[in-house]
Amino acid sequence: MLTMAESTQMEVEIATKAVPLPVKPTFKPLKAHEMSDGKVQFRKVPVPPNRYSPLKKAWLDIYTPVYDQMKIDIRMNLKSRKVELKTRADTPDVSN
């Protein structure tokens, strides 16, 4: 049977010197066309019937900043009643 002194002893590991971690590599940020592997992203957004006329009236006010500032090709497909958006090679950031 173990005595009280023997049962309260605890084994302690001896600390060894920590090996320093390798330095993290630093990469340049990816460009927009590199994120999507050069593939063009394309979306079709349906327009509800009650929003179709107001959209047609305000189309130039919507089209101009989207095309010039966001650098996204945009068109209104009148036949299918959808707005189609497509990225370009110079689109700055496709993730946001």
Can you describe what's shown?
A three-stranded antiparallel beta sheet has the order 1-3-2. Strand 2 (72-77) and strand 3 (82-87) form a beta hairpin. The protein has four helices and three strands; from the N terminus they run H-H-E-H-H-E-E. It is elongated. 28% of the residues lie in helices and 18% in strands. The chain has helices at 4-7, 32-35, 49-57, 59-68, and strands at residues 42-46, 72-77, 82-87. By secondary structure, the chain is an alpha+beta fold. It has a domain at 40-96: K Homology domain, type 1 (Ribosomal Protein S8, Chain: A, domain 1, 2-Layer Sandwich). The mean pLDDT is 84. This is RNA-binding protein PNO1. GO terms for molecular function: RNA binding. Keywords: RNA-binding.
Layout of secondary structure:
Blueprint: H1 4-7, H2 32-35, E1 42-46, H3 49-57, H4 59-68, E2 72-77, E3 82-87
Antiparallel strand pairs: 1-3, 2-3
Gist of the model:
This is RNA-binding protein PNO1. This protein has helices spanning about 5, 30-35, 50-55, 60-70, and strands spanning about 40-45, 70-75, 80-85. The protein is α+β, with helices and mostly antiparallel strands and about 100 residues long.
Over all CA atoms, what is the radius of gyration?
Answer: 31 Å
User: What is the overall number of helices?
Assistant: 4
How many runs of DSSP E, i.e. beta strands?
3
Categorize the overall geometry.
elongated
What is the mean pLDDT? 84
Highest-level CATH class of the domain at 40-96: Alpha Beta
Tell me the helix content.
Answer: 25-40%
Q: State the separation between the terminal residues, measured CA to CA.
A: 70 Å
CATH topology of the domain at 40-96: Ribosomal Protein S8, Chain: A, domain 1
Low-pLDDT runs of 5+ residues are: none
Order of helices and strands: HHEHHEE
Main sheet: strand order: 1-3-2
GO molecular function, one term: RNA binding
Organism: Noccaea caerulescens (Alpine penny-cress)
Protein name: RNA-binding protein PNO1
Keywords: RNA-binding
